[in-house]
């Protein structure tokens, strides 16, 4: 597999992004469908940074970043196509996000479902700390874990 090219999402990427997410867990387990993803990505979300990782002209991953969340930015979504997992694409997307975020703020937040042990390990490996659970946030009986990676305090003492 060739090195991913990470770039801003374009309208022409929408169908591939929707399919990638609709075919993937944890979103299937959380009840998200193609209809939900079409609503989110048509048009490309305004006021957010939407990026894709492209390998051999095929969308292999997607990231969605909301600026100004708490005292930092929030990684709303990081998804990698099932066929592209464990190839470094998620890490490349996250590194791209971190470079952009830490150039403007000190904190990057994300959420991960408590049952998604693979994603929890991924974020921990990349320096995120679990802040705490939000029980029954998306589906009954499951928590979303708030995560934070920091470059230091938001304010200088």
SSE layout and pairing:
Layout: E1 5-8, H1 14-22, H2 34-41, E2 48-55, E3 58-69, E4 72-80, H3 89-102, E5 107-113, H4 117-125, E6 129-135, E7 143-150
Parallel strand pairs: 4-5
Antiparallel strand pairs: 1-2, 2-3, 3-4, 5-7, 6-7
Which assembly state applies to the chains in this document?
A: single chain
Helix-strand pattern, N to C? EHHEEEHEHEE
Low-confidence stretches: none
Q: Tell me the number of helical segments per DSSP (H or I, 4 or more residues long).
A: 4
Cross-sheet strand order for the largest sheet: 1-2-3-4-5-7-6
> Biggest sheet: strands, sense, closure?
7 strands, mixed
Strand composition percent: 35-45%
What Rg is obtained from the alpha carbons, in whole angstroms? 15 Å
SSE-based structural type: alpha+beta
Describe the structure.
The protein is α+β, with helices and mostly antiparallel strands and 157 residues long. 25% of the residues lie in helices and 35% in strands. It has a 7-stranded mixed β-sheet, with helices on both faces. Helix 1 (14-22) packs antiparallel against helix 2 (34-41). It is globular, with a radius of gyration of 15 Å. The N and C termini lie far apart (47 Å).
Distinctive features:
157 residues, 4 helices, 35% strand, alpha+beta, globular
Summarize the structure.
The chain is α+β, with helices and mostly antiparallel strands.
